[in-house]
Design a protein that fits this description.
The chain is an all-alpha fold. The protein folds into 2 domains: about 190 residues, no CATH class; about 160 residues, Ferritin, core subunit, four-helix bundle (Ferritin), CATH 1.20.1260. Helices cover about 75% and strands about 0% of the residues. It is built from 17 helices and no strands.
């Protein structure tokens, strides 16, 4: 037993190395895979940066400083969870076989992502409802799941150099090669996707998917115009920053829509007619837009919140129909995130925070609340 202990390294040091590996892997996968499911990675990192940096992290075009801060905060969180799993709980986890570690790490990912989404971020210690109301829980679950996939490598890191059992060497070599292959595949997919060569359209109703993309793109364009007005005229500084985030998120989603359209349908996206715009739920009339622009300073915030809430509620209805349709799976996944984020922004405009924000976000995950 004493000889075996001499062969081992400190579980805390091994856990720290595993934390660096797992957090870096999840960062790479998140960055490379985001656009495949309709996420703008830069906006997501900026939203994560807003957890510690608050409104100071938000801008209409995510800055490199905010992106890097978001990545750093994410990696710190993943690193910390690895220390808990193999350090604090090392009495039970440090000697497990690789596949056993994996079987425990996956539910651990569900637990840790839920702990952040339901508690640590919106409540104590950060008290920041933006993350939970903006990003549906499953995004964090996917990110934490990617991190958990690297946990079996602890079976090698726990041994001193030259003392690793042959079976652990074989397993971890294969696991590492699989992880590198995944990153390479996602990197190639991202490279081709960024040049307009996405995986072909996979829906069952081409006309419905095309209509949704065209309509949501036009809807977002008006939402961006409306949010830009608030970014300049809102009296509440927090509302100004929230409007700026709306510009960033909807602009990012519009870029993804345009890229998917060109890749899937190989033609320019037709603009929506006046008649189509008039039938879109929540789309404001020219008179309503002028009323927002002309609102007196003392009344602007109230007028804007009312107009943007109606606009968002319409987008939620459109996204909810896509989510429940037979459309391309990527469109449906993206629609669920849009549905969640825009309901969350309505709550944020009305000052929802704390436990109420958590309850609202949970409801938003499963219903559109605007039928």
């Amino acid at each position: 037993m004493r000889f075996r202990e001499q062969q081992r390294r400190s579980r805390w040091l091994a856990a720290a190395e595993l934390g660096l590996i797992s957090s870096t892997f999840s960062t790479l996968v998140s960055q490379l895979f985001a656009a495949r499911i309709g996420r703008d990675a830069a906006v997501d990192w900026m939203t994560v940066a807003a957890i510690p940096l608050r409104d100071g992290a938000l801008s209409a075009e995510p800055s490199w400083s905010a992106i890097l801060a978001g990545i750093a905060f994410h990696q710190w969180a993943d690193f910390s969870w690895a220390l808990v799993f193999f350090g604090v709980l090392g009495r039970w986890t440090a000697d497990l076989r690789p596949l056993t570690i994996l079987l425990l790490a996956l539910p651990w990912a569900a637990f840790t992502s839920a702990t952040e989404w339901f508690g640590l971020v919106p409540l104590f210690p950060f008290w920041q409802p933006l993350f939970t109301l903006q990003q549906p829980y499953w995004i964090g679950l996917l990110v934490h799941g990617c991190s958990a996939l690297m946990y079996p490598l602890f079976a090698r890191l726990r041994w001193r150099r030259g003392q690793v059992p042959a079976r652990d060497i074989r397993f971890t070599n294969a696991w590492t090669m699989g992880a590198l292959a995944m990153v390479a595949l996602l990197g190639a997919t991202e490279l081709f996707g960024s040049h307009g060569y996405e995986v072909p359209w996979m829906g069952r109703d081409r006309d419905a998917d095309q209509s949704y993309i065209r309509h949501m793109t036009a809807h977002h364009a008006q939402g961006i115009e409306l949010a830009r007005i608030a970014a300049e005229q809102a009296q509440d500084p927090h509302l100004r920053k929230l409007a700026i985030l709306m510009v960033a998120s909807q602009a990012g989603e519009s870029r993804i829509f345009e890229n998917w359209w060109l890749s899937w349908f190989d033609m320019e996206m037709p603009d929506c007619s006046t008649e189509e715009r008039a039938t879109m739920p929540g789309y404001l009339t020219p008179a309503e837009m002028r009323a927002v622009k002309a609102a007196p300073p003392g009344q602007f915030d109230t007028v804007f919140v009312d107009a943007m809430s109606r606009h968002h509620a319409g987008a939620v209805r459109m996204a909810d129909r896509m989510w429940r349709s037979r459309g391309d799976p990527r469109l449906r996944i993206m629609a669920h995130a849009i549905r969640h984020a825009q309901q969350g922004e309505i709550a944020l405009m009305h000052g929802v925070d704390g436990a109420a924000a958590v309850a609202t976000a949970f409801r938003n995950m499963f219903g559109d609340n605007f039928n």
